[in-house]
Write a structure and sequence with these properties.
By secondary structure, the chain is of the alpha/beta class. The chain has eight helices and 15 strands. It has a nine-stranded mixed beta sheet, with helices on both faces. A four-stranded mixed beta sheet has the order 3-2-7-8.
Length: 308
C-alpha cells in the first residue's frame, strides 16, 4: 500500500528546437496541456506499476483542476482525500522540451501550498505501508506527514526534489532517500552539481544517517547504498524523446516494488526500467509505463555492478 503526499499540477508542455537562454524567446509549433506535479506523477507511476496507491494533495476550483486530477483517477489512484479548495488556483508547470529530450521547468505552486497532512487517512499509514514524499509542498505539512507515518509504523521514501535542505532533526523520519546528482552533492556538502563525486555523496549520506540512498545519474544509471550493499544500476537502453517524467517514473515504480516486499536493489532496478521507458514518450503521466511493460523490459536492463 502506497500513499503519495504531494503536488498536483497541470503541465503546459511546449516542444522547442533548443531551450531558451536568459532573456531569450524561442518559438514552438504546438503545446499540450497534460496532468503533472511530482506527487501526482509518482502516484500514477506507482499505480501503473501495480501498487494500491492513494494521492493526498489539493487542487483549486478552477478550469485546470479537472485536467490535473481526472487522469490520476483514471489511472487507478484513490483521490478521495484530495480537496478542491475554494478560491485557490490549481498548481501549474510550464515546460519547454528540446529536440534532445532535455527540459526546462517553471512551477507555480497554487493549491499545492495549502496541503494538509491531516487529510491522509490513518488506515493508509499502517505498519508496512509506504509514504512517498517530494519537496513541491511546504515543509510544515511534509514533515508532519512523515511524523504521522513513522508513528504508525509506515515506511517513508523521500524524493528530495526540487532540492531543499533536510533539517538535522528530520533525517530520522526517512527510510529511503532518492536524489539526483546535484541534490546528493548539495545534501552531502560536497559541492555544486557540476563538480564532486555522487557516489561519495551517496555513501556519506547513507553512513551519516543510517538510511538507504539512491542517486539517479541520468544516462549513467544510478547508484544505491542499502542493506544489500553498494551497487551501480545501469540505464535501460532506449531512444530518448522526453525525459520530463523519468525521475517520477523511477520513484513510483521503485516504491511499488518496495511496498510489494521486494528487496531494495530489485526495487531500484524496477525503477530504472520505468525511468528509461518514460523517456520514450512525450509528457509526464502520459509516458509512465505499466507493470507489464516494466516486466517485459526488465531483462534488457544490464546487471547491477557491486561497488567496493
Amino acid at each position: 500500500m502506497i500513499t503519495v503526499f504531494g503536488s498536483i499540477n497541470a503541465d503546459l508542455v511546449v516542444p522547442v528546437a533548443s531551450l531558451p537562454r536568459p532573456g531569450e524567446t524561442v518559438i514552438g509549433d504546438s503545446y499540450a496541456l497534460l496532468p503533472g506535479g511530482k506527487g501526482a506523477n509518482q502516484a500514477v507511476a506507482a499505480a501503473k506499476a501495480g501498487a494500491d496507491t492513494a494521492l493526498v494533495g489539493a487542487v483549486g476550483d478552477d478550469a485546470l483542476a479537472p485536467a490535473a486530477l481526472e487522469p490520476v483517477r483514471a489511472a487507478g489512484v484513490d483521490i478521495g482525500a484530495v480537496p478542491v479548495l475554494r478560491g485557490a488556483a490549481t498548481g501549474c508547470a510550464l515546460i519547454a522540451v528540446d529536440a534532445a529530450g532535455e527540459n526546462q521547468i517553471v512551477v507555480a505552486r497554487g493549491a499545492n501550498g495549502l496541503v494538509d497532512a491531516a487529510a491522509i487517512p490513518s488506515r493508509r499509514l499502517r505498519t508496512g505501508a509506504v509514504l512517498v514524499l517530494q519537496r513541491e509542498v511546504p515543509d510544515g505539512p511534509l514533515w508532519s506527514a512523515a511524523e504521522r507515518a513513522r508513528a504508525a509504523g509506515a515506511r517513508v521514501l523521500l524524493n528530495n526534489a526540487p532540492a531543499a535542505p533536510i533539517p538535522d532533526a528530520r533525517w530520522r523520519l526517512i527510510d529511503v532517500l532518492v536524489v539526483n546528482r546535484g541534490e546528493a552533492l548539495a545534501l552531502a556538502g560536497i559541492g555544486h552539481a557540476s563538480a564532486g563525486d555522487p557516489l561519495a555523496a551517496a555513501r556519506a549520506l547513507a553512513a551519516s544517517h543510517g538510511i538507504a540512498v539512491a542517486v539517479t545519474l541520468g544516462g549513467a544509471g544510478c547508484v544505491v547504498f542499502c542493506a544489500e550493499g553498494a551497487w551501480r544500476v545501469p540505464v535501460l537502453p532506449v531512444k530518448v524523446l522526453d525525459s520530463t517524467g523519468a525521475g517520477d517514473a523511477f520513484v513510483g515504480a521503485m516504491a511499488a516494488a518496495w511496498a510489494a516486499g521486494r528487496p531494495l536493489l530489485d526495487s531500484v532496478r524496477a525503477g530504472a526500467v520505468a525511468g528509461g521507458l518514460a523517456c520514450t514518450a512525450l509528457g509526464a503521466q502520459t509516458a509512465l509505463p505499466t507493470a507489464a511493460a516494466i516486466a517485459e523490459a526488465l531483462p534488457r536492463l544490464p546487471p547491477a555492478e557491486r561497488l567496493a
